[in-house]
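Support case: user asked for a sample of complex input and structure output to validate their parser. Sending the pair below.
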Amino acid sequence: MFDATRERVWQAHTDPRLLAQWWGRGNKLVIERYEFERGGHWRFVEHSDHGTHGFEGRFREVVPMERLSMTFDWDGMPGHPAVTTAAFEDLGDGRTKLVSTMQFYTPGERDGMLNSGMEGGMNESYVALDALLAGMK
Amino acid sequence: MFDATRERVWQAHTDPRLLAQWWGRGNKLVIERYEFERGGHWRFVEHSDHGTHGFEGRFREVVPMERLSMTFDWDGMPGHPAVTTAAFEDLGDGRTKLVSTMQFYTPGERDGMLNSGMEGGMNESYVALDALLAGMK
């Protein structure tokens, strides 16, 4: 749940200038490609003290203010894409519920991603997103 | 089973100049990208009388002469990748067995691909590959 309107939460997820401010959790994020439409490609490269990590995929569903789905392929396991889907729900009173899921082909791929530290990274990203949304008011 | 050595069958699957001669089944095939290594990208565009079809993906496993695996995303269902894997087995006497599989995330995606006429297209491709291999002797 975010203390921000659905429009703001949607913007933060789809405007590359805003994405660059929270997705990397304080690390430099270079958005190499962001073709925001069904079938378009995206590629982000995160630069941290521990090295460089590339992520990329293709948009499969773009329903403005409602649903956003894309493939997600990490350079560390190339060719093993997951599918991320985010659903945006307006709760009224300037609050928004975000239901974000990540589907994997196999349990092994899921575990590989979890063991890479992804869960902690996502939580840090959401903390950064909270701060960004608070600043957008 | 192909009446050609494993080296020839491998070459026909991995040399873009040779791929362009059979993959498109007589249609013009433009190989826009072919980064032949784990993590590299590929993109083929087939031009036929019925229109243009793009296909792309990322190499996930490249074991020379033995195994080749990649994601396969058709522009008609973008962001719904399948995984193709080909295993090359030397049968001796200049013959090679090829076991080619295509895995989908969901039955619906499998059926969508089959209904697109893909199975007939693949059979036509293999006829064209047979002819190419015969000419390489």
